[in-house]
Amino acid sequence: MKSNPKTFHVKSFGCQMNVYDGERMAELMAAQGLTATDDANAADLVVLNTCHIRERATEKVYSDIGRLRKHARQQGHDPMIAVAGCVAQAEGDEIVRRANVDVVVGPQAYHNLPELVAKAAKGEAALDTDMPLASKFGKLPGRRKVGPSAFLTVQEGCDKFCTYCVVPYTRGAEISRPFAAIVDEAKALVGAGAREITLLGQNVNAWNDAEDHGLHGLIRTLDRIEGLHRIRYTTSHPNDMTQGLIDAHGDVESLMPFLHLPVQAGNDRVLKAMNRAHSRDSYLRLIDRIRAVRPDIALSGDFIVGFPGETEAEFADTLSLVDALGYAQAFSFKYSPRPGTPAADMADQVEAEVMDDRLQRLQAALNRDQHAFNLASVGRTCDVLIERRGKLPGQMLGKSPWLQSVHLIGDHAIGDVVTVQLSAAGPNSLTGTQTLRAAA
Ligand code: 5AD
Ligand code: SF4
């Protein structure tokens, strides 16, 4: 039996939605009177907010639990360990069997974390992986102090069932949070210091409500919030890119010229086997339409190499699509069979060495394009939102509208928006030289 914890530490893995969920869990535990600590090894309660998207992410959880327990034993400390997030959802019972944890809580049930912690403190089993119809959001405390760039979950879950992906199983069906709740949370975030809000959803551009506002309607409303300078959204599916949303990229000033629009592969047979429900050509035409209204938009994406049955010629189609589009940045992964997904049972799983080789070639192309995009930005004048201090004296770090990291020297506060000229570019960041004004 463990006593009631007084301090806690939340460690989030994986996607931005997990980061958001981690913040909300931290707020929830703070509202219960617990104190946050940065030191996972010293906390009475450690929440591991896990990711199940690829195998390595899952294995990390088990090794983390092992490391925490070992370290704690050496210190004569016996922390309570809670596993949250998508591994908790997918492997709840197995975690309890395989690892020594006290609480297991799924992504749709974490509003119950305080109750589960109280149960565990009494030595009772504390596992909740329900996906209740009533949303957790209404049961969470309000937003407190946040940084200049904040996340706001507006949509969760996925009905697309791409054949490789666990998300429809771990996060459940697509649901959109109500319009008013989102606008209220956005205002609270701005009140708490946010200058930029990134709207989050597994299929964020599928967000909608009974009044058919669509994500673009929501963005146009948020655009009117005083003090909110920047709006972003992620992650999107090509088939939910409505004309309304494309138009918003053309005329909503606070909507940043950046779009994360995963394509996964460039070959139609592979896209079909992935159940992506779009073709190479429809994706290319979609990007043309978006670039027509916002020529400078920075395009980002996700790619999977080595999907079952992918041939060298099919992989070459991914490379040629990348060449044709010039991504400003992108994430690329080796296919990882996820238990329970259709692709895991497909014939012709691609050998590890072949996947390694393809990933290397794809990443070389993506890195080249990212560097090229950064170099092409040199000379541009743009606003930079200052997010933190840099390592050098007087150095500040912020983001350009195109989500590039920008270093600059100047006496600025975190949250300032500074107009700079981009004066030099590396593969991963740029240097800005202040030109005109510093506006709060
Ligand atoms: N294997 C490899 N990558 C995957 N992704 C999702 N599922 C898998 C998988 N089983 C990638 C996709 C998705 C991103 C979040 O993770 O590219 O867009
Ligand atoms: Fe997964 Fe596909 Fe849904 Fe994205 S759209 S979360 S890749 S099933």
What does this structure look like?
The protein has 440 residues and is α/β, with parallel strands linked by helices. It has three domains: 7-128, Methylthiotransferase, N-terminal domain (Rossmann fold, 3-Layer(aba) Sandwich); 138-377, pyruvate-formate lyase- activating enzyme (Alpha-Beta Horseshoe), CATH 3.80.30; 381-439, OB fold (Dihydrolipoamide Acetyltransferase, E2P), CATH 2.40.50.140. Helices cover 35% and strands 23% of the residues. The chain has twelve helices and 19 strands. It has helices at 16-31, 55-74, 85-98, 113-121, 167-170, 179-191, 214-222, 243-251, 268-273, 280-293, 312-325, 352-377; strands at 7-12, 35-36, 45-50, 80-84, 103-105, 126-128, 149-153, 155-156, 175-176, 196-200, 230-234, 258-260, 298-305, 329-334, 381-389, 395-399, 405-409, 417-425, 429-439. The strands form five sheets. A six-stranded parallel beta sheet has the order 2-1-3-4-5-6, sandwiched between helices. Strands 15-16-17-19-18 form a five-stranded mixed beta barrel. Helix 3 (85-98) links the parallel strand 4 and strand 5 (103-105). It is globular and about 60 Å long. 44% of the residues are buried. The mean pLDDT is 95. Residues 158, 160-162, 165, 167-168, 202-203, 237 line the site of iron/sulfur cluster. [4Fe-4S] cluster 1 binds at residues 15, 51, 86. Its main location: cytoplasm. It catalyses: N(6)-dimethylallyladenosine(37) in tRNA + (sulfur carrier)-SH + AH2 + 2 S-adenosyl-L-methionine = 2-methylsulfanyl-N(6)-dimethylallyladenosine(37) in tRNA + (sulfur carrier)-H + 5'-deoxyadenosine + L-methionine + A + S-adenosyl-L-homocysteine + 2 H(+). It holds the Pfam family UPF0004. Residues 6-122 form the MTTase N-terminal domain.
